[in-house]
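Read as chain and fold; for instance:
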Amino acid sequence: MTTHATDTPVTGAYADQVVLLGAEPQPDPAVLGGKAARIGEMLADGLPVPPAFCLTTELFAAYLSETGLASELRGTDSRSARERVLATGIPPSIAEAILAGYTRLGRPRVAVRSSALREDSAGQSFAGQHDTILDVSGDADLLDAVRTCWASLWSDRASAYRDDDSAPGAIAVVVQEMVHADVSGVAFTVDPVSARPHRIVVEACQGLGEGLVSGRVSSDYFVVDDRTLEVVEERVRHKVTKCAPLAPGKIGMTRVEAAARNVPCLSREQLAELSRHALRLRSRYGAEQDIEWGMRDGALWFFQTRPITTRPAAGSGDRPGGARSPYVTPQKEAIEQGTLWSRMDIGEIFVGLMTPLGLSFARYYQQHVHLDCTSALGARVTGDPDLPMGYVQGHVYLNISYSAYVMAQCLPTRDQWRFTSRFVSEEVDLTGYENPFGRFPGGLTDALSIAFWLRTTANELTDMKARAKRMSSSRAYEFDRDRALDLTRMGRSELDMELKRRLGYFHDMHVGYMPYYIHAFGFYAVLAELCKQWLGDEGVNLQNRVKTDMSNLRTVESAKEIWSVAQAAKDRPRVLALIEELPLDGIEEALRADEEGREFWQEQMEPFLRAHGTRGPQEMEITHPRWIDDPSYVFQMIRRYAADGFSIDDILRRSGGRQDASHTVLKQLPLPKRRAVEAAISMYRTYSELREVTRMSMITSIWLVRNVVYEVGRRLLEAGVLHSMDEVAYLDFEDIRAYLAGELSEAEAFDRAKIDGARRLHEYHKRLPEPPLTFVGEHDPASAVRPVPDGEHLEGLGSSPGRVVGRARVIEDLVWQADEFQAGEILITRYTDATWTPLFAIAGGVVTDIGSMLSHSSIVAREFNVPSVVNTKFATQVIHTGDLIVVDGDAGTVEVVENS
């Protein structure tokens, strides 16, 4: 803080309506609004709060009166009223008073925030309902920011948040000195989600707190005992990005310095100081508080405090009431306690923690698509849609017990153990396990089911290649159709029809894709069994060679094609300079604006994005932009491939090009057995290839749905219902459907309390330990807290053979860190999916916290002959970027031999 409020009084007709907070007798809170009143009280109490002044509700009333808006806006709808205020200038006499207050503050850079009458009250927080404008400087920009805050009184999100049909009333505005904080966060004097007592919860991030509020940055999590001020829990996350000033008046995302990525944002002493002030505020107001704070050069500052208006609920599950069972609806106790749940290899689209929107979309899939996928596999009776899937801590699980029961109708999986054992990790011992759903009924029911499976299988074998061609062709058509449509010009009913059309395509592509996905695994299991019985150790080697010799997988093709695009950029020095020198979010626009760049975009980027652009991390998590929505990752890999000087031969040598040695191994078998193994290999290869071809159709169908959802989000942001597009992540997919169908109004579908609750629950899930890959019955997060092992030796699952020594590179955010990755480094991350493939082409080894032999990490590591160890559980906590480590993919171990 370099400026200070002066003693120069504000003069003129409206002098009394511009109040320096904390420095003089404060007016009634009714004219200051909730936020300003609290800031004034904290300043008066001597708390470290940046200087601020308030433009009272009376000044706002004077503005409406002098401009004639008071009568003009009467009876006007919210959107028209807001636009009218934004278009109306501030009368000179009022502007003079505002600018005099600014001068009295010392004319620093400021944050301009609303302070509505009931904002930050005990009944309603109104947090985020009105606009905040950061890093404002200069008279004109200040007056524009004030008018924007005034206009936000008519935002739809503020109107929806009011608990009655009252008129908007009045609004005050706080102008507060801007603190460009090094570290920011929130402090809760009670855990906002769990019910455990005596817990002050602190979340802290690098940079400004807006990154934390929006959910765009990683944050450290601390729990302080409010009796002793001792830290009783701490989770320090790898922090890659922060929200910070990019230029005067421009706030955006940038990188966290390498030295600050793995260290706690706050020291024990700073946490104690913060907690003491938090307890003081709780005592001062006689209520639990939600406090925003920041630190600059080690000095603590408070920006606002508000009462916590919702109390935490006991429990930690995703079902109402905090139940710990993954089931979406209550089941009999024997079922709930005896069900085997797994998230091993249930499709890369479901991997990892999902947002509330992603989870609700997964539930849509469960209710409307999953059972038809099961039917496509040959199951005649598919049962209750509530049973096949469940949810724990924001993660999606497959109900293995119910699925095994249903799939017992099919001849290859009549033995439930064959299906069950496929999805069990080492965390669960199934010795003596009995399926609580029992066995599928025999007699006529069984006979009908076998007949159905035989008919379905015959049709599948007849149609599988033709269906793949149809799906591939439809993908190109639907992709081009979407690019030609302008969703912004559609009315709500038209958008509803478009969503229904796309959900129909989503259904068909998933049902069409599922047999390829499951049968590829199934024929590999047949191959593994035959090799085990007839070939012993040589059979294991044969299996691995067969899996590895799939060099035509489209996931690997993406790495080769990005290399080709990178070479085309290298042939155009001007284009490569734009890609390498500009910020990621400005490259596409710069290329399109440049003559040579436009040519490169049309000849190279457009074909690549048409073929691969709908890829993205966690494809079912529709909040993640795809490569075509945000090509930042593609640009990062172009930088990396161009800089490293890799040739296409390097990639080809690592992926494919290996001689198939199966013939030599199989010669020792009698002809009938050899033919059986060869048939299993052939079917595995066929289904694997068809799976990869049709996978693009499946993930494109998700992207098509995403586009409609984000068009709704854009409209909600424009209407003021959402504060930023980041809040789309906290919507519910069923609410979006109901809103477009006209079944719910905007206010009913997008209730602010529900959005805020979803955000809090998601943040809570992010703080919890990673849930297990498999478990039986219920899951208690407390039981999952396992200490990081002593020493620096980790054991996991060796998923790709070989031994390598190299420097570690921890990757938390793929888009922001891809260009940091150096050829030959060991990739350390929590998990990977198909979008990570281009990094595998230059990695020396791969280590993940979670994974299995058939997870993406394992498959692609084997494809590129990269040693890999997965399911280490703690790698991202124990290993740091720059550590020298040994990865042994045969033994399944990782050892740190030299710290960075």
Observations:
- The CA atoms of residues 509 and 698 lie 5 Å apart.
- The chain is about 45% helix and 15% strand.
- Residues 120-130, 156-167, 312-317 have pLDDT under 50 and may be disordered.
- The radius of gyration is 30 Å.
